[in-house]
Amino acid sequence: MLCCMPGVAFVPALLVSWSSAAFIISYAIAVLAGHVEPLVPYISDTGTKPPESGVFGFMINISALLAAITMYIRYLLIEKQNESSHFVRSSCNMFTLCMGLMGCTGMGIVATFQELAVPSVHDIGALVAFGSGVVYITLQSIISYKSCPRWNTHFVCHIRMAISVISCIATIPMIVFASKISMTKIDWTPGEKDYTYHFMSAICEWTVAFGFIFFFLTFIRDFQRFSIRISTEIHED
Question: What region holds the CWH43-like N-terminal domain (predicted)?
Fold first, then answer.
């Protein structure tokens, strides 16, 4: 069904569906195994202990790869549109891509280094993933407005900017509350020390994560009008 989509729209569609499945499946396994409480655990908490850790690591690494491919295609799309419209500097488009790829690298670090095994590396990866990701979608929102109305509708631009603003707002308390937690653990229960900080930070984390998913969902229509052709020429001596 994804392959029947016009252009390269199947790429962001696959990214959205795969990433959603990664979060949901890991969460379901972790809760059913009794490793985390059902009420808003950290995303990383749902991928710390086996068997969910294997599923989480594998699926999030694939998500990072799909996100990188999506971002690169988006870069090529803007470059192509910019040839006739000149609505954004090529350097700005490249910088936006670099920020996105940094976020993908952070995702790979989060998936590879579990929260309890190497917490410092895991936390750095999460900070890079969320921080760079928020910068990426914000810059993409600005670029969308610059390309409007020829390449984007005002409605899509408003949706993207709204997602960016919500994600930016949620990122700040996510970091602040997480910094106030004095222990690294995954089996949180209401009423214990630092639970409120954990709960609020986790809500913000899920908000930002699904903000990214919904943002990439808006790429599908743009990608329907874009196709990549790879030509191979063979020369005989």
Answer: 8-225
